[in-house]
Write a sequence for this structure.
């Protein structure tokens, strides 16, 4: 048994020695091969294979670089597109702003023109109104002057006796009337004096037979002349006249039917004021 173990140990030692020799041999071969490549290379003066191999980029590296370049190109193109789009948007915005500004200026110009036209129209209206006012004032002044001249031409001076008769007949006929009614009665008396168809004095006109009912019934002698009547008679004597040349007046409800019939059939009706109708 011990002998067998000894034999086996010898065998193992033999193989172990052979393994070490084989490993040394393989290592030496490898060293010789490497030395040969390093010293000879592929030709004199050229880089050796290991150097070329070390400096040659891998396929993955080449592919990655191409991809990076391609990606850079795409990115640059996208950037250019964005810049172009931004430029177009800026131009469009500038165009819109310019258009808006032009429209605003046009609207402002139109508003200014409309305002100017409105102001000119207002000025024209005011000038026309002023012209019309001046024309109306001129016409009024001319009419007032003409009325004053006519009043002056119709002014009449009467004697003291005629003045008192005129006051009494006006009071008796129109004492309850307004100022115009009183002046109208005085106008009719004075118109008769001037007409040449009647007496040429106030007393002669008033006391002519069957002309005035206050004379016929005697009430002319009992009236009390008021200050209003005096003022109205003075205005009539100064030329204030509303009669349109009337020579007659009548109170229809207080007159006899025969007198009313005569007035309507023989005279020209002019107008009515309060209760009195005036004729010519």
């Amino acid at each position: 048994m011990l002998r067998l173990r000894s034999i086996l140990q010898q065998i193992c030692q033999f193989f172990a020695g052979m393994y070490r020799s084989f490993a040394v041999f393989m290592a030496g071969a490898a060293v010789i091969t490497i030395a040969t490549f390093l010293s000879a290379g592929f030709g004199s003066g050229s880089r050796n294979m290991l150097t070329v191999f070390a400096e040659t980029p891998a396929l993955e590296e080449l592919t990655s670089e191409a991809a990076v370049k391609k990606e850079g190109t795409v990115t640059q193109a996208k950037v250019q597109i964005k810049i172009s789009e931004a430029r177009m948007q800026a131009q469009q915005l500038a165009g819109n702003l310019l258009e808006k500004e032009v429209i605003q200026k046009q609207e402002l110009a139109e508003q200014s023109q409309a305002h100017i036209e409105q102001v000119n129209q207002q000025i024209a209206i005011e000038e026309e109104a002023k012209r019309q006012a001046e024309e109306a004032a001129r016409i009024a002044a001319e009419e007032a002057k003409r009325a004053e001249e006519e009043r002056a031409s119709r002014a009449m001076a009467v004697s003291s006796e005629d003045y008192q008769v005129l006051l009494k007949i006006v009071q008796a006929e129109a004492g309850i009337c307004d100022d115009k009614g009183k002046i109208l009665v005085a106008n009719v008396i004075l118109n008769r004096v001037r007409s040449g168809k009647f007496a040429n004095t106030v007393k002669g006109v008033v006391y002519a037979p069957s002309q005035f009912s206050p004379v016929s019934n005697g009430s002319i002698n009992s009236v009390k002349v008021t200050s209003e009547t005096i003022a109205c008679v003075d205005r009539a004597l100064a030329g204030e006249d509303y009669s349109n040349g009337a020579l007659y007046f009548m109170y229809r409800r207080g007159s006899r039917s025969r007198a009313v019939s005569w007035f309507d059939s023989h005279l020209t009706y002019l107008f009515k004021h309060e209760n009195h109708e005036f004729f010519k």
Q: What stands out?
A: The first strand starts at residue 248 and ends at 251.
